[in-house]
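Q: What would this chain look like folded?
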Amino acid sequence: MVPPDLRVVDTPVAAVLRVACERGPIARDAAAKATGLSVATVNRQVTALLGDGLLRERADLTASGAVGRPRVPFEVNHEPYLTVGIHIGAVVTGIVAVDLRGRVLGAVEIPTPATDQAAALAQIARSARQFASRWHRRRALWVGVAIGGRVDAATGRADHPRLGWREAPVGEIVGEGLGLPVSVAAHVEAMAASELLLASQRPGAAGTAGTSLYFYARETAGVAVTIDGRVHTPSSGPGSIVHLPTGSSARCSCGALGCLEATVSDRAVITAATAAGILSGTDERPSVAAVYRAAQSGSIPAHELLVERAQVLGRTVAVLRDLFNPDRVILGGQAFTEYPAGIPHVAEAFAQASTLARKDIRITGFGNRVQEHAAAVVSLSSLYSDPLTSIRRATSR
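A: My prediction, written as structure tokens:
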């Protein structure tokens, strides 16, 4: 069990690996310029990373007439390895295989098992191990788990109220099931970390300086705060916005009316759509996707329902933005990305409710794959923050 390190680490070895991930193949002098390190320091780190198999040289790309090894470009040695990421959701569990550059090799979804927590985790671990075995020529190095609720990163245990899990030994069961070092993180914090560690190659990436507020909404709702390249991870677990009041008449499981999750979650949308006749009451498994399809097909009641959710989300984001006053706000989750026609209503409600000057507010560039990248970054965070120690730990088994 290794706690995830959800931050941008600036040690020389981490910086060199990061520049290889982001810009490789890259020459040593270009890497020195990009990292601010001396060429001699870059050479030492490259030599160490080559020795442990995390980098490889590309002599075939050496410029014509160049002399000496420092002119040989290097890149991440991504082909022999993968990591396994698991996102355990209230309804669906996603499993991804990721290379060392953070690129998803493949993904699969399974229903989150509706059994007791130990049996459910064992089943998830079996599915993940079977999925990872498809890449039989790659060695799995690490497994990362992103999960809602409260997580003790040191022990890998989690409380997940929606699943009825309490002190669930997530890290222990998943790590043993795959035979790998394991890290476990709260899923919204992991999503915020993916914006720091995996999004830098994307045009228009948010950057790491200053403060960011990450707001997530799908089956649950949550926030995470990033400060100067580090995700804030409270020792007692992430805060909760589940019961923020919205003024709606939706009944929450806590007994109150208008709590945020009871108003904007996928389950809340399905309940409202069924009551409004948008979904057939005879459907055995009504889904929020059916609501999206109805709205996209011209159903005015479905569109109005999704607009109402968008307005609640916009007002809620405005309240939190005004409270924290971050440099940027990033919105993630299918509540934003699956119905683009709702985004203008999010923006309008936000503008009406916020009292501060508009700054940098954007939808995540990961689209509807935020859960995949959250799981991926947890599986890679230790390798990115302490590459040599982590690769030796992973390969010494």
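The mean pLDDT is 92.
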